[in-house]
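Weekly puzzle thread! Below is a chain. First person to post its structure in token form gets bragging rights.
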Amino acid sequence: MTQKNYNVDNLNKIQEYINRMDPVDIADKLEILPEKDVAIWIKLLNKDLLADAFTELRTENKIRVVNILSDENIKDLVRELDEDELVDTLQELPANITKKLMTVHIDKDRRKIVNELLGYPEESVGSIMTVNFLSVKESSTPKAAMNKVMSSELDAEKLEQIWLTDQSLVLMGFVYIADLIRYQDKTLKELSHSITSSVSPTDDQEVVAKLSIKYDLGEVPVVDSENRLIGIVPAEDVIDVVHEEMQEDMSNITGISEQAESYLDEPSFKIARTRTTWLIICLLTATMTGFIIHRYESLLASYVALTAYIPMLMDSGGNAGSQASTTVIRSLYAGEISFKDFLKVVLKEGSIGIIAGVILVIINFIRLIVLDHAELGVNLTVSITLVLTIIFSKVMGGILPLIADKFHLDPTVMAGPLITTIVDTLVLLIYFEVASLLLGI
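Winning reply:
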């Protein structure tokens, strides 16, 4: 909704319209509007709404907005941003703009907090937590707690629950504001909910996502080494973390690197480079399959029919391994299993492999007789290899993520090209060894 010729009526209509928009939609508009229109929208937007929309902008558009704003407008914008949002912005902007914001536009009191948050490693809990939360002493009265809510300047979504601490700020629990309103005759201790889990600022942000999913947490408390409350990770940030981790996992599973920019904006050469890395690794490791085939060349020359079933066996093994690894990774992420369950996973995937393998062998045995008219020796060789391949692939797919997790590696790396390459190599070894034994070559 832009106008080429602005007058008072048009500006009033635009102001009324854009101030009813969602911050995400405002950000989408600011991404595509000409600079003149962006400047007008900035003037017409409420300060808090502009700040919310600003956090949704891509880096290059944040820079554009900052360059358009006057010093006074920048001060207002910075004032409206929460500390964690401010840290995210500072990390994205060029060094010269960051320096100006830190020295000129950020108040001295906030600068100390911002510097502390900037000191946490990237993708750690400390880098995404907010220090804007409401807490009261557990010994306070409900009325005192409600008065604190009424006088708070925090956004509504950060006032759904109040954190309770003791005199030393040690986290004791939390109270829902709705309960404060409904049960005014009860004490805070009676209304208190216990803390099911908390995180340290140095933990990986993935821990927040796992705990939030496992315990259905709206907010995740962040505590120091003495269990004192120092921040929270609100639901909207948890959702962002889950999204980021999902993208990272999908990238690992498919053997590509994450894209820093949107798909259409990122240069083709850069995307090709990130994708080619794993392709090269797979190409080099696949050399092993070439050596194996070359070693059993005489066997293949005697039984050419065996060659036709190599792709089927390798595909079955790769798919079976990927199924198992994906299931185990999902259970690892949900906290249902860990490395201590290693033997249980081996037995579980082994039994699944036997059941699935037998079913596939029966179907494949009939297919070979009816469609391929394969002789009994070849049929038995393919069938035995198939069942061994499924069992082996399931077990390997189950234990590799556990091993990766044990050594603090991302288990999703094991769910993609790597497991397929490992399985392919060992499937060929099984196939040709079985053929040698059954066919007497």
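Puzzle host: Confirmed. Bonus trivia for everyone else. The radius of gyration is 30 Å.
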